[in-house]
Every structure is written in structure tokens, then in C-alpha cells.
Structure to design on (846 residues):
């Protein structure tokens, strides 16, 4: 294999994991590492401190380096740094989902002009091989659906809320104590991290550029233990699902939100920090890939895997992996959440009077919504009752109209939650 | 992409599926197809009958063809045919697990001498991407364990035996009626098909040549409904498991047999004809790949995927995919089943006398076997009782000795079954 001379930008948990793993590969030399704080104490084995720099341009402009590993994260200043690196003809291996989601197509265009490869297996689902398989061995397929759990933090929180009846706040706190959630958990719990990954995954799966700004994104912060309990009683688990599908008219429905997933579905069985991706395509049918979606070790597997593929490809004559060059200049026509069709779970607090259930049924019917299950969960002290409704497939805008009408009614005290359902 | 001129050998279900899928790819031309019976009526769309032949050497010796798709199966006469094709510098895409398991290393050596590529994603687990990921994006890992369900027929039969309490014979008959099992089911139900796939998978995972003749192979024909029922009561499902592991001393433990799999394990949740492969490696951790393991459509996804990767690679200068050339000339040191360590399930029919359970415990203890669970399933009409024992991790040879001693005893009427357990 071709010998690679590598510069690493970012030396946190993942960067250190990558450096450690690279010690076993003789054909890869780490020439320089860009760190945030050059004076920080570091215990990393085999690390010659002289290769550290706090100026990433010392890597980007270094003629001895032919590949950049970027594990720093964020869009600024990384975009400019990598742009310069590509213009300097350096190949890129990155784990930066936010960068790819927000400015990936610009980078891929610059890379194409410069005959340079960008690989990013680690950007989606950590150690799970998914980008490379979609681009290579699965490329005979028309992939028409993705349903995935792409964020370990939220899956861990939801698992604990389900298993132990914990509140969202308590489960989050435990996740933070165990290192599964960051001090500022916003990016995870609001679904942004999942949306970044989904935009990358759906772009390569559907062969059209999916715009991150048009992905409807809803996190898990509004879920309460009552929802998780009701879901369980009805034969479901609640998961934060990244959903992407190609509709019969070619338009694309891509979104991130919590869903009630039938407990018979394999995704319902994926617990704790594990990630799982279901792809449906023709002719392959349904495939499910499950594994660790984060952490230094699984992520380093993907980063170094990309590097080794690169080394092996460069040996054949320095021409880019044809299948690894993205060609997604056609924009996907993404539909609005209001135009999607789903089965729904609606949790309502209503007056405990005999007409309430009938009233809910009438409003639903008026808005083209068929109810498949309705369940009343006891009676509260204030003489209200929690009523849970599961609908048949309905249009989101109809549901929103029905909820407006219900909210305005005297019998309905509160619409507690609206969730979508996957069977 | 490079234009491929393809010859197909074998035109049954899979061959026809591949031909159909290839219609959507302009850069791939099917030049000739070798069939068994040239006079058979065929309804395949877009098939020009003039490209059919019943002589595969017309493909192998055709200078217009640069890739052979082999989906005929079996070792003879296919080995000789493919050998000739390789000597004629044709690349090979094959789904033939028996051939690769029995004579793969000979073929790979000839391919290396002739600078020709053999790809075989479809040979293991149908449509599930597993060969290419192991050889490319996962190649930074040391894989040390495989546990997999690689045969849809047996998994279907076991699912029906578990869910519906069917006998093996009835479940097999239903599987045959639905086309999930062949008229002669031997290759599937005796575990041979699974063993072929495991030999390929463990060879590329462990980077040492695993000898198919040294894989202990036990099928599902001796399982009865009582075993499936007891397993369920104890919190397990019975699955035909392909197991491969690298032991701390570097020796390799590779075998195929039914196992009680804890119902919490994701493999226990894989039902019907679905296949699933768990790989454990460092640094990636556990990965699970699940999907359709057979059938014309999923298999054609892998065959045409291999073809498209080949086309894309050949474009870069006709040098073989470095990572796709097998280098497994070092033979694995495979241990004998007698030297393996497992937890066990033992089903015994014993006299219904108060000493029986104590006696079983004593014999186990004498043979270094600790019992973790012991369960008596009611009393039979002839005043015998079925006793089920689950042991802690024990050596297979100790278990075999204990069973011999138990068989010789008056209290023990019959050793009904011995199965291994995976938690």
C-alpha cells in the first residue's frame, strides 16, 4: 500500500483514539497534529510533542502531508481550513457531520476540481459501516427508505425513561454523569446531530442533495414519562427516528422526530447508546446495520478504515475512488411536514365527562382522521382524564387542524403531546 | 465507468434475477449466458435467445467477454470452468459458497498469478453487505468473533417450531411448500450451507485460511419441540449459529451448531428467513448486519454491486482492487470441538425418583461441571421425568464424559439432547 503522511486537526477523544490506532500501521506516518491548547498536559503514548501545533495552517500548507484527518468539528473556522487543504491537493478524511451537512456540497465541488478525495465514514453512525457500503456494494440498488437511530445520547435517555420510568431531566442528568451526554446537550436532545447525519445519509442514498435547512427536526425534550408508559402499554417503544423516504412522485420526505415504534420492529429493540440504520431498497429489500454510533474507539475504526482504503486506492495510480466522489448536484424536492402522511399518537387531557371521547372522535372524523385505538388512563384528582388516541394514516395538516379545534373546546383541557407512529 | 462485457454461467432463479437487474445499467452488456437446458421455455423479458448456450466454455473462451458471473453452484465442473476463465484473464463474480469453501484458495492463487479479481459478496448472506465492508472500511480492525445466522431455511423452520409449536417435520414440510426449503433439504438442515459461508467469513475476518473440513458441523434435525419449548421457558430462543472466535493463544474455534441464544441478544430476535451477522472487533466493538440472506433479488443486489465496483475499479487502470485480493496463505490452527468451552443445555429423561437430580449433580461435579439451572418438566406417564440442566462454562470433553457416565446409569433413561448456550 501507498505510504500516507497524515496531519490530524483536532486532538480530543476521537483524535487521540485515531492516533493510538494508527500506531499499528507502518505505512501511515502522523507528521503533525493541530491542537487547541499546545500547553495542555497529554499522556498519549508514543506522542512526540514536537509534532504538535496550534496553527492548523501549518498542516494545511505542509508539503510533506498528503492526507488530513479532521476531527475538530464545527463549521468555522474548519471550512476555510479544509478548503485551503483541498486547494493544496490534500485528501480529506473527516468525522465532521455538521460541516458536511451545512457546507458539504461546496467542499465536494472544490474537491472535484482539485482531483482530491473526501471520505467521511465516521461522520454518520460512528463505527457502523454505512457510507462506504451505500457507495460501493449497494450501488445497484434504488434506496427508497431510511429509518434510523443515529444519536446514542438520546437513545440512552429514552431507554432509561422506558426501563426505569425516569423523567427526562433525571435520565439526562444520569447520561451526563456517565459521559453519554454533554454539559450542553442541545445538539443531541433537540435532534440537530441526528438531522446532520440524516442529511448526509439521505443525500448519498437518494442521489439528490438534501438540504439540512428543510429537514423538519424535533427533539426529545417534550416527552414525558406518561408518553413512554402509554407507548409501552400499547406495544410500542419511543425512539428518536431519522426518517427519509422517496415518495411515488419522486419528492423526498426527510425528517427527525420521536416516534412510537412497534415493539416487533427491530429498531425498537436497539437500546442504550447503540445506533441502528434500516435501509430499504430494490432489489436488496430491508437491511439493518447496528453498532456503536460514537466513542473514540468505534469512530477511529471508521477514520482509519477510510485512510486504509485511500492508501490502497492511491497505490493504483492516484486517481480518486470513482465511487467515493459525490455527484449530487441535483437538489432533492423536499416536502413540508404539513404534507406528510403518518399514523399518530395524541395524548389529551380531557374533562371526565361521558361526551369527551365522542367529541374527540367527532372532531377527528370531521378532519378526515380515522381513529384505530383510543385508551383512557384512569381519572385524575381534578376530575380530568388522560386520553390516548392512535390514528390510522392521516395527513399532518389535517391532524394540526383537528388539534386546533380540540384545543378550543371546553372538554379538552390540554393537548399533551402529538407523536408519529411507525409499525 | 469502464464498460463490462459479461458472460453469465447459470440461469436459474439467481441468474435470471441478475439478468433482469442488469437491464438498468447501460455500461454492462450481457454477451452470453450458459444454461443447463437450452430448449427450456423462458419468459425472461429482453432476453435474446441467441445469446444462450449450453456450453460454458463458449463463455470462458470468448475474447469479447471480460467478466464472468457464476451463479451455477457446485464444485464440479465449475472449478475447471472458472480456472480456465481466469487463465483467459477474465474477472469473476460468483455466488458459489461451496466452491469457495472447498477450493477457494486454489482459485485465488490462480487469480493472483493472472492479475484477475474474484469478487463474491453474494456467496455469504445474500444481499447483506459483509464481504466488502470487512475487506475495506473495517480493515483497521482486529476481528476476534463472529456469531451469525447464515441460513434462512433453518431459521424459518426454527421460528415456526418456536412460535407455533410445530414438529421439525411439519415445519420443514411447510417451508418446502412455501419455497423456503428445497425438496432435498440436506445441505441446509444439516448445517453444510452455513459451514461453507462461515469458512469464507472467518477466513477474511481472521486473516487466516479456515479449513472447511475442520469446522464442526451439526444441523437442526435432532431438535424437537420439547427443546424449543424448554429453551423459551428458560428465556432463550434456539438458532442455528455459525460461530467463529480467535482464542487468546491465537488458535481458532470455528463451528456450526444449534444454540440456545438469550432472548435479550439481538440474534435471538432475527426470525423467519432473515440472516444476521454479528462481528466483534477492536476498536469497532460489536456490529450486527441484518437482512435477506437468499432469494433472487437480494442476491442480485450483491452480484451487480460487485460488478459495478469492478467496473469502477477497472477504469482506474485495470489493476486489481488491492483489498479484494485474498492473501490467506497462512492456515488457521483450528481447535477440535472437544477442546472448546461452552455453557450447555442438557435434556435428560430420568426415572422419577428423589435421587435422580442429586445423581445428575454428582456426575456433573465429578467432571468439573457447575450447574447454573436445573428444571424438571412434569412427570411422564411411564413415571419418568424430563430434566433440563443449564451448566456454567465447561469443557466439551468433560461434558461428553459426564454424558457417558449418565447414560450408563439406571436412573437415566435417555440423554435427549445436548446443546450449547450463548448469553
Amino acid at each position: 500500500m501507498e505510504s500516507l503522511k497524515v496531519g490530524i486537526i483536532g486532538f480530543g477523544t476521537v483524535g487521540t483514539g485515531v492516533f493510538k490506532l494508527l500506531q499499528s500501521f507502518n505505512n501511515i506516518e502522523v507528521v503533525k497534529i493541530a491542537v487547541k491548547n499546545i500547553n495542555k498536559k497529554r499522556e498519549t503514548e508514543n506522542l512526540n510533542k514536537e509534532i504538535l501545533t496550534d496553527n492548523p495552517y501549518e498542516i494545511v500548507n505542509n508539503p510533506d502531508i498528503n492526507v488530513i484527518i479532521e476531527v475538530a468539528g464545527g463549521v468555522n473556522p474548519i471550512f476555510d481550513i479544509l478548503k485551503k487543504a483541498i486547494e493544496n491537493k490534500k485528501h480529506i478524511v473527516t468525522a465532521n457531520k455538521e460541516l458536511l451537512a451545512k457546507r458539504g456540497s461546496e467542499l465536494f465541488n472544490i474537491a472535484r476540481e482539485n482531483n482530491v478525495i473526501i471520505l467521511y465514514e465516521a461522520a454518520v453512525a460512528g463505527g457502523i459501516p454505512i457510507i462506504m457500503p451505500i457507495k460501493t456494494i449497494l450501488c445497484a440498488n434504488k434506496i427508497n427508505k431510511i429509518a434510523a437511530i443515529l444519536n446514542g445520547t438520546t437513545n440512552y435517555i429514552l431507554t432509561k425513561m422506558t426501563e426505569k420510568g425516569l423523567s427526562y431531566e433525571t435520565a439526562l442528568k444520569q447520561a451526563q454523569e456517565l459521559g453519554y451526554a454533554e454539559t450542553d446537550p442541545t445538539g443531541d436532545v433537540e435532534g440537530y446531530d441526528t438531522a446532520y447525519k440524516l442529511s448526509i445519509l439521505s443525500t448519498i442514498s437518494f442521489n439528490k442533495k438534501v438540504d439540512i435547512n428543510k429537514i423538519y427536526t424535533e427533539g426529545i425534550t417534550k416527552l414525558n414519562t406518561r408518553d413512554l408508559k402509554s407507548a409501552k402499554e400499547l406495544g410500542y417503544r419511543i425512539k428518536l427516528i431519522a426518517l427519509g423516504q422517496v415518495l411515488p412522485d419522486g419528492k423526498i420526505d426527510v425528517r427527525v422526530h420521536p416516534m412510537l415504534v412497534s415493539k416487533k420492529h427491530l429498531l425498537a429493540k436497539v437500546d442504550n447508546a447503540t445506533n441502528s440504520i434500516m435501509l430499504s431498497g430494490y432489489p436488496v429489500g430491508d437491511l439493518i446495520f447496528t453498532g456503536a454510533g460514537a466513542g473514540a474507539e468505534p469512530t477511529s475504526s471508521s477514520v482509519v478504515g477510510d485512510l486504509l482504503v485511500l492508501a490502497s486506492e492511491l497505490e493504483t495510480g492516484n486517481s480518486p475512488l470513482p465511487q467515493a466522489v459525490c455527484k449530487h448536484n441535483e437538489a432533492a424536492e423536499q416536502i413540508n411536514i404539513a404534507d406528510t402522511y403518518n399514523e399518530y399518537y395524541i395524548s389529551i387531557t380531557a374533562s371526565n365527562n361521558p361526551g369527551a371521547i365522542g367529541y374527540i372522535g367527532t372532531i377527528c372524523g370531521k378532519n378526515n382522521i380515522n381513529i384505530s385505538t383510543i385508551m383512557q388512563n384512569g381519572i385524575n384528582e381534578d376530575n380530568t382524564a388522560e386520553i390516548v388516541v392512535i390514528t390510522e394514516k392521516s395527513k399532518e395538516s389535517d391532524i394540526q387542524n383537528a388539534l386546533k379545534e380540540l384545543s378550543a373546546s371546553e372538554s379538552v383541557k390540554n393537548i399533551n403531546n402529538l407523536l408519529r407512529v411507525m409499525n
